[in-house]
Amino acid sequence: MIKLHELTIRKVHELLTKKEISSFELIKEFLEYIEERDKEIGAYLRVFHDEALKQANEIDKKIAAGEEIDLLAGVPIAIKDNILIKDAPSTAASKILKNYQATYDATVIKKLKKAGAIFIGKTNLDEFAMGSSTENSAFQLTKNPLDETRVPGGSSGGSASAVASHQAVCALGSDTGGSVRQPAAFCGLVGLKPTYGAVSRFGLIAMASSLDQIGPITKTVEDAALILERIAGEDPSDATSLPFNFNFKELEKITDLKKIRIGVIKECFEQNLEPDLKNAIDKSIKLLKSLGAEIDEVSIPHIAASLACYYIIMPAEVSANLARYDGLRYASKEISGSLKELYFKNRGENFGKEVRRRILLGTFVLSSGYYDAYYLKAKKVQKLISDEFERAFQKYQLLLSPTAPTSAFKLGEKINDPLAMYLSDIFTVPANIAGLPAISLPVYENNKLPYALQLMAPPFKEKDLLAASLLFEKISAK
Amino acid sequence: MEKKLINEKTVEHLLELSRLKIDEKEKEKLVDDLNEILNYVKELEKIPTENINLDVIKKSKKLRSDKSGEESLSDWEKLIEGFKERKEAWLKIPPVFDR
Predict the structure, then answer these.
(1) Which of A191, A297, A468, B35 could form a disulfide with A181 if both were Cys (CB 3.0 to 4.6 A apart)?
(2) CB contact under 8 A, B61 and A359
(3) pLDDT, tens digit, for every residue of A162-174?
(4) A221: closest CA of chain B, how far (Å)
(5) Is the ipTM of this complex over 0.95?
(6) Where do the domains of chain A lie, and which CATH numbers do they carry?
(7) Residue of A nearest to B12 (CA)
(8) How many domains does chain B fold into?
(9) Could you tell me the sign of the dihedral formed by the alpha carbons of A251, A257, A258, A260, in that order?
């Protein structure tokens, strides 16, 4: 009997290559478990039953033929429903894409297919990835497997809860302002947002193109690193992707954090944090010190302004990106009346509240007479904040903060108060504003729900980020 | 007391521009929510940014040449498959201008 909750990428690989279980049997076991468990959790919008078993058969054939298989081969991975898989529906949890079937694979999907990973299903999210609790999905509610009265975080809440409830070994999410890291934090998992440009966005349904980035949600740092190794790299189909290779092997050479300076971002601790969160972070800092890291306080004077910048820049891009949903393309079913009536009918009836709010905000901040005061100002403050990070990174290799100001909050707690919901991303947004790689790692205190620690690194220094994370994970498990 | 940066009339104009509609009863809350958010982001005006130059682009990237790739048109049939009304490759949409 395979224990699903113990599986990581490497463990699946060992089971398969030692022929302790076939890929087909393993996937079948996952599918049976999902059938029961997901009635409670609501992580998946769609499960690829037949297709997953077919993929598994292919892997079994390779193993039987004695072919060498990739570490990811046969590993069931859950995919956020805003990432396109050819010929499968991709709704981004929006009614406006209810009937849409993707006509091509996202680049990350192409790469994972090549590795032999098995797409077990598409996961729930806040509509178009807009939200921090997954409650903005047009289709269903997702519960936090650690406490089913609480949200899984968002917007990649389905991906996080699928992994946390062992309905997948690992998952992909997307992170525009914290949507990989915050749900990972709320579900006690590892969430990695790569450097902007490290992973191709081709085939990711766009929300805010200058901030969006695809990243893994996993049980372990090693799994996150193994996925990054496979999905990273420049892509001619995404003009903002940059040449970047990440090699997992390089991490294994790093055995301590001597010569690593970590700056604890002062401003993140100036507000009233829950005492348990503060204690959990203090304990983590001690552990990092015991690994040889040199740690002291650093100031990013305008970091607190990141969220305000974000709520100008992001809606501005949202209003432009979502103009494409005209009620004609993407398999709209009702086409009647004049063109203008058609727009109003389809957009008015099929976009949810949060999406409409952000389109309106974006339209406002870009409109004549307000552009300079809002959008241009936000772009300037964004540059200011990026410069402050750059200065800090002249002295420090890594920066540290909490991932979120609280642990998972209750379902329904913030859904009617947009600003309160936005503030749950206060610590994650700066990495998107400055384009930095960042990782969320679970930390525990007396509280039975996990908190999380966030580490940030300079652009394309994923190696330092993940090496430190691996060592931290190892020492905190002791 | 927060400043009212946006009123019902402006919201109606924005709804028209972005081709959206909402229920009459949602409008009041929407105006309040938008004001709360705009008051929050308006805090940025206190930050001095006179010395920030946005014209400097650090990393310029070489863009690919403007030629279509191999895959670009192979799937065109798939792309229009979901379109409700069409005749061969022609897509039928309502008239753009009212007669």
Answers:
(1) A191
(2) no
(3) 999 999 999 999 9
(4) 30
(5) no
(6) 4-251 (3.90.1300.10)
(7) A360
(8) 1
(9) positive
